[in-house]
Amino acid sequence: MKILVVGGGGREHALAWKCAEPPYVDKVFCAPGNAGTAREDKVINVAIPPEDLESLASFAEEENIALTIVGPEAPLVSGIVNAFNARGLKCFGPTKEASVLEGSKVFTKDFLHRHRIPTGKYKSFSDISKAVNYIKDCEFPLVIKADGLASGKGVFITSDLVEAERVVRTILSGNKFGEAGSQIVIEEFLDGEEVSYICITDGYHCVPFASSQDHKARDDGDSGPNTGGMGAYSPAPLLDTELEHRVLDEIIYPTLSGLREEGRLYKGFLYAGLMINSKKQPKVLEFNCRFGDPEAQPTLFRLKTDLVDACLKTLEGDIGELQLEFDSKTALGVVLAANGYPESYQTGWSVKVAEKASVLKDLKIFHAGTALSGDVVVSTGGRVLCVVGRGDNVREAQMVSYKGVDLVESSNLFYRSDIGYRAIARLKSP
To answer: I need a surface site. Which of 16, 81, 204, 408 has the fewest CB within 10 A?
Structure first.
């Protein structure tokens, strides 16, 4: 059997690595992949960009690909599943119609309101003056979001009127996010703790992955600008059994039902970014139509179930009895990013990983923004590596991860030193 993974980031490295595990899988193609996927057993990089939907579909036809798994959101929002389905090809992910859940924050907030799914209060605008007049009567902090896809960088938490007005003008002027910034959502700031709730769904049933928590802010203590994610860990102790039932009953199943009612049957990974307040009430911050990044790396490092089989069963509508099994240990991933990320940064820097890293059982280094220049690994993006460690608890997993970070040699990378700090604070002192 041949598998195709679309994308070239850390999430796609994790997906390709996991898809290569079953003995019945002969080859895993990764389009375009990175330096990490190029060095995995049974994984072959293919120089097709994720946005070239027709070339990807033609490749899948020519190679007799049994299953395509789409990593990033952009091709899903553009309709890659529709393009593959039109050719009779199996492609794991939501259709263009269902992917609007991530493609438009305005649509999603309106959808949540229509179906009475808990979320923060909001207003949407396309006119700068109307938006500025609105925020004059708002309480701060205030959250302002670009409507379209912005690689995790289109969300701003503003502390006062001056900052909020500047963000409104920056987004709606079209200079920063282009078409993705043609509309904005202005919403109340929700206090609490974030959790990533990711499941696999056939549009009717839902099978949850292990919980995880992302660290979106660039700097220690959750300060600095938002990024695509600076690290994550799984499981997240915040999400206990009682809270998970609430999430399923109040958010996930009403969302799937609402999408079906509106003719947008959803199949694939569904990622709900949630805020949990002090009363353990969950509210939706955002939806993503794919696996999270960097949540995928520690979560898939713990996954014991055959991912290929799970995806095929989902597409066939056969997940009623599907269960996902995870390693009892905690996994924690630390992202190494290029200096200057998420704003301007340089690429082309050499990245060396000590040989020792490849033989350590509880350590896995997933590549993101990397490529091979001959035999040398060089940086090609903002997020370069995700170093994942595994341990009996989050503190031990953190220790393994940061020891792994020490095995990476590069003069142009930075990382947060506190990934997992919220979970560690929950541990009882020895």
So the answer is: 204
Architecture category of domain 121-188 in CATH: 2-Layer Sandwich (3.30)
pLDDT tens-digit profile of 227-280? 999 999 999 999 999 999 999 999 999 999 999 999 999 999 999 999 999 999
**pLDDT tens digits, residue range 348-390?**
999 999 988 988 999 999 999 999 999 999 999 999 999 999 9
Rounded CA separation 29/177 (Å): 31
Spell 337-368 as b/e; 16+ CB within 10 A means b: bbeebbeebeeebebebeeebeebebbbbbbb
Q: What is the pTM of this model?
A: 0.95
- Provide the pairing of β-strand 408-409 with 330-338: unpaired
**In this structure, are residues 363 and 357 in contact, taking their beta carbons and an 8 Å threshold?**
yes
How far from 18 is each of 11, 64, 300, 331, CA to CA, in Å? 11, 20, 7, 15
User: What's 2-95's CATH class?
Assistant: alpha beta
Is-contact 381 35, C-beta < 8 A?
no
Give the β-pairing of 352-353 and 383-391.
unpaired
Q: Name the one residue in this structure whose structure tokens are 């995880």.
A: 212
Kindly state the helix (H) or strand (E) to which residue 404 belongs, with its residue range.
helix 394-405
DSSP of 117-129, one letter per residue? Answer: --B--EEEES-HH
Amino acid at 258: G
CATH topology of domain 330-426: Glycinamide Ribonucleotide Synthetase; Chain A, domain 4 (3.90.600)
